[in-house]
Design brief:
Largest sheet: 5 strands, mixed
Order of helices and strands: HEHHEEEEEHEEEEHEHEEEHHHHEHHEH
Number of domains: 3
CATH topology of the largest domain: Nucleotidyltransferase, domain 5
Bound molecules: zinc ion
Shape: globular
Strand content: 15-25%
Oligomer: single chain
Number of strands: 16
Structural class: alpha/beta
Length: about 425
């Protein structure tokens, strides 16, 4: 797809706001140095963000003998963003201020089998209502709601095309949500939400090429290439969880055999445990979260079965991640989502060794493999970031119209 000058302007606007959120307060000169944009471009973009009240002027700093430099900072109370993480077993919702601090949280538990679109939508609506009430803010301040939903999503139409774990086909999710939620809605899938969270706030910030491996019930890889999110032609890039790692291997929800997900997703890890030790006390047959937590505890206590299960899982994961390293030559591979968070550094250490056995030495030497350091739910944070990007984009379209009407605005000189 051809990048238009408007796309570039939008990307530059994200970049400047991302930098201000990360380093408030800051000056236009520092922003130009950090982003590589010209001072004039930065000044124009800062002017737009000031007009939107997303940032504010916060005084001056002395610059060695020269004119004092104006400082800007993110206007945390200038608006609110909501991130929704719909997973197979829960709906988690967080409400953020514009500095992306969490102001309120709500959780809805989904019982096994509770997977009809109407049931899921009711949980989302309840949790969104709850965070707005808890935060005590006016609805008008909510700039948007980003929704992360598993499976293949058409962002433009808001249709959940295929969610294998629920057997959803072409569910008009955005329309269903709009019946209950009055704010602007932005739909995408967790691979992309988690990747964008790392790009804005995590280990991928300032890195050109990064892969964010999402390890939950489902598995996939968010691809950040050339400093931006890589979506592919139909928004389904990164379905690495459904690449084959064992020919004629375990049956997957997607209908194929031997997918990566069937060995390293939470149900796959449970099966790794069951095959090794069918009667293990670590196994909670109906509860993925309890089993993964029990394994994490077992590893801390040096339980031999737990250690073996984590090592076996890391062998599959390592071979699969080595493919990603060889294909994309990334600067960093980030392990994210709840399974990675629960199993933590012991898993990452095993994965590093396993990747090193399978990847080519040259790309391997250039790659760092780390655990996500994002302290909150990364899918919620990423979904909220989609809402922030959506708000910035719609503003960009409005200001482009305004600029064609009157070209009176000039960039402040400094
Ligand atoms: Zn599959």
């Amino acid at each position: 797809m051809k990048r238009t000058s408007r796309d570039i302007r939008t990307a530059n606007r994200y970049e400047v706001l991302r930098q201000i959120i990360a380093e408030s307060p800051t000056s236009r000169q520092e922003l130009a140095a950090a982003t590589g944009l010209s001072l004039a471009t930065v000044a124009t973009l800062v002017g737009e963000l000031l007009d939107l009240r997303m940032i504010t002027e916060v005084g001056f700093e002395d610059s060695a003998g020269g004119r004092p430099r104006g400082l800007v900072a993110v206007n945390a109370s200038g608006g609110a963003l909501i991130g929704v993480d719909i997973a197979e077993t829960y709906v988690h919702v967080e409400l953020f201020d514009l500095a992306l601090n969490v102001l309120a949280r709500a959780d809805e538990h989904m019982r096994p089998g509770e997977s009809l679109p109407e049931q899921v939508v009711a949980h989302v609506a309840a949790a969104v209502g709850s965070v707005v009430a808890q935060a005590g803010i006016e609805g008008a301040r909510v700039l948007g709601v980003g929704v992360s939903v598993p499976g293949q999503v058409d962002r433009a139409t808001g249709i959940s095309e295929y969610a294998p774990n629920w057997d959803w086909h072409d569910v008009p999710l955005l329309d269903l949500l709009t019946e209950h939620i009055a704010y602007p809605l932005y739909l995408d899938n967790p691979l992309r939400a988690v990747a964008v969270a790392e790009l804005w706030f995590g280990a991928a910030r300032g890195r050109g090429d990064a892969v964010v491996v999402n390890l939950g019930t489902g598995v996939g890889a968010g691809l950040l290439l050339g400093g931006g999110l890589h979506r592919g032609v139909s928004n389904s890039a990164g379905e690495w969880g459904h690449t084959t790692i064992v020919l004629d291997g375990r049956l997957c929800h997607c209908g194929n055999h031997g997918c990566v997900e069937t060995y390293v997703g939470a149900p796959g890890i449970m099966l790794n445990l069951r095959e090794l030790s069918p009667d293990s006390a670590l196994l909670h047959p109906e509860d993925q979260t309890a089993t993964v937590d029990a394994l994490a505890r077992g590893v801390r206590e040096r339980d031999p079965v737990a250690l073996k299960v984590v090592r076996d899982t890391a062998r599959y994961l390592g071979a699969g991640i080595a493919d990603l390293v060889n294909l994309f030559n990334p600067e960093v591979v980030v392990l994210s989502s709840w399974v990675a968070a629960a199993l933590g550094e012991p898993l990452v250490a095993e994965v590093r060794e396993a990747v090193a056995r399978h990847a080519l030495p040259r790309p391997m030497a250039a790659t760092e493999i780390v655990l996500s350091a994002i302290p909150t739910d990364p899918a919620c944070l990423g979904a909220a970031t989609f809402a922030l990007e959506g708000a910035l984009q719609s503003v960009g379209q409005r200001s482009a119209k305004r600029a064609t009407r009157s070209r009176s605005r000039t960039a402040p000189s400094s």
